[in-house]
Amino acid sequence: MNVLTMPSISYSALAPILFLLLGGVAIMAISALRRRPLSSTATTTLTLIASVSALVASLIEWAHVSTSPATSTIAGALAVDGFSVTIAITVSCATILATLFAHHYLERMAIASAEYHVLALTAAAGAVVMGAANDLVVVFLGLELLSIALYVLVALNRKSQASEEAALKYFILGGFASAIFVFGIAFTYGATGSTNLQTIGNTLSASVAEKPSILLIGLALLLVGFCFKIAAVPFHLWTPDVYQGAPTPVTGFMAAVAKVGGFAALIRVLLAGLPTARSSWEPVLTAMAMATLLGGALLMVVQKDAKRMLAYSSINHAGFLMLGIVASSSAGLSADLFYLFTYSVATLGTFGILTMVATASDDDAGLSRLRGLATKHPVLAGSLTVLILTQAGVPLTTGFIAKFGVIEAAIGSSAVPLSIVAMVSAAIATFAYLRFVLNLYAAPEGDLQSLDLDGSTTSPTAVVGVAITVAVSIFFGVVPSLLLGLTSTASNHLLP
Amino acid sequence: MSIPLSWFIVLAVVLFGIGAFGVLVRRNVLIMFMCVELMLNAANLALVAFSRSLHDVGGEATVFFVLVVAAAEVVVGLGIVVAIFRRRQSAIADDLAEMGG
User: Fold this and answer.
1) Is the pLDDT of residue A455 over 80?
2) Is the residue at A437 inside a domain?
3) Residue A84 structural domain
4) CB contact under 8 A, B62 and A193
């Protein structure tokens, strides 16, 4: 008789995922069992407890993995290495910040807060799974856990037509991308005989692939699927509409967590699973990175809506992150991890402030509405300025260190043309960012009454969130060594 | 006499192509939705065919995960479609152009 042997499970490595998921399930169960809906303060508190527990668990796990070699758990399904733990730390921090910004918004818009928090925690768990996934099937499961929760989050503002429209566009294109991704898994499996990234890597390095054409088709399909998720040109078409239509705090959450999850999985699949096929994917990725850098920066200049502009800004950031993958060195990996963390914080802060100054129905984020914000709310406008300049990559902010890091890594791997394109795109993007900032300090047009919103600009949780994001963006910009030490340790702890 | 692997793969590719073409060309949201499902099932067919030829159960196990995820996706997708249909009495993608994208 066959005995079913249970694989060994390292629960300490799973703890961040479990805390996030358990938090979501707990909020869902409690709100289902009660007669009256949970107050938004209670759900926010529970979400904060869950995400802070996940952060603490990943920091404890960090102390463990940074001193021991990378391993995998659950029969090789999840990697336990510095990379996966760093992604868990980044996603937990992003969830904490997003919760702080969402709290007042959900009350103001009368959106069921329990639903938002359950879905946000589920999506965050999906992103952590993607960061640790060591098997293409697990990558797919993490991706869907993240995406399906995000489809609903985008549609959460039922009163807004734009929110529903954005959700449908995101859903159709997201589903399309997932189907392409699964087809890619099927072909990669057919060519290598396994979905486990280590086994794929070993098979490919031991011998030339048995069916090279099948492997190439699989690789191409996987890349297309990923590029939809990370919004790389030419697969970025959904991004501006979804960013604009989604409720503003959801946009911030999505911009941070979906990007982190997508890039984490892409990095691991390409660098851990398919490094031997580098000659095949590197030219494609280089070309797409150039298109993404320039497309994002050029289209950012012509936008009249703050959320659309930031959507193209996130596309531009995706291009910079692709630089770190093209470099495919330990320096590139470290730079990408640093970039992902600092980008998440800055973008969450930016969307957090946009949430605070949003109209009562959150349907107009035009740049002209923000004109003269500095005269009304000087502190808020100053914080927004810092965060936007961080995204632009101005020295003494984390954005500069991040952009410097990826370009340095790309030059180190002799990807010089791509680095030049990156620097040009940074200059173009800076024009758009500076125009955005000058707009805040321009003389106000008409009355600014519309910017005074029932105390949402003084919501204590959001103020704490803004303070944290601004402090992190400046502190690690002036003293980056602490965070850089962490990411470079992590980059040397990628499961080979 | 057994059917060679390539036949299954060609069928899967054809089904996938029909699905992808449908998503890009058809304008009714429900049909686009069905085309995505067709693409997922083409992938399932390819997984099972490869699994058989490799004598490895991994691909067949993957299919179960894909089926479950596809079902979850349908639940969310139909929910969004119903919410939109209630408001506009239409499920045509071209009518959804409020944001101009």
Assistant:
1) no
2) yes
3) 13-491
4) no
CB contact under 8 A, B80 and A162: no
For chain B, the domains span 29-89
Once rounded to an integer, what is the mean pLDDT over residues A396-406? 93
Q: Is the pLDDT of residue A213 over 90?
A: no
**Angle at alpha carbon of residue A479, lines to A473 and A480, rounded to 5°:** 75
pLDDT confidence of A454, banded at 50, 70, 90? low
Strand partners, A288: none
d(CA B88, CA B96): 10
ipTM for the complex shown: 0.93
Residue A183 has pLDDT above 90, yes or no: yes
The pTM assigned to this predicted structure is: 0.93
Whole-angstrom distance, CA of residue A234 vs CA of residue A255: 18
- A496 occurs within a structural domain: no
Q: Which residues of A touch B (CB under 8 A)?
A: 137, 140-141, 144, 148, 151-152, 155, 158, 161-162, 164-169, 171-172, 175-176, 178-180, 182-183, 185-187, 189-190, 193-195, 237-238, 240-241, 244-245
Question: What are the residues facing A78 on neighbouring strands?
Answer: A73, A133
- Using CA atoms, how far apart are residues B3 and B1, in angstroms rounded to an integer? 7
Please, are residues A90 and A402 in contact by the beta-carbon 8 Å criterion? Answer: no
> Cβ(A260)–Cβ(A340) under 8 Å?
yes
DSSP string, A187-240: HHHHHHS--BHHHHHHHHHHS--SSHHHHHHHHHHHHHHHHHHHT-TTS-TTHH
- CB-hemisphere CA count at 13 Å for A31? 22
Q: How many residues does chain A have?
A: 496
Render pLDDT for B55-86 as a digit per residue (tens, 0 to 9).
Answer: 888 899 999 999 999 999 999 999 998 888 88
DSSP-assigned letter for residue A273: I
Q: Is A8 inside a domain boundary?
A: no
> Is the pLDDT score of B100 beyond 60?
no
Question: Is residue A1 in some structural domain?
Answer: no
Longest dimension (CA), chain B: 57
Q: Which amino acid, one-letter code, is at A485?
A: G
Residues A225, A181 contacting (CB under 8 angstroms): yes
* Contact between B40 and A187 using a beta-carbon 8 Å cutoff: no
Of A236-240, A356-360, A374-378, A453-457, which gets the smallest average pLDDT? A453-457
Average pLDDT over residues A204-226: 84
* Distance from the Cα of residue A43 to its chain's centroid: 23
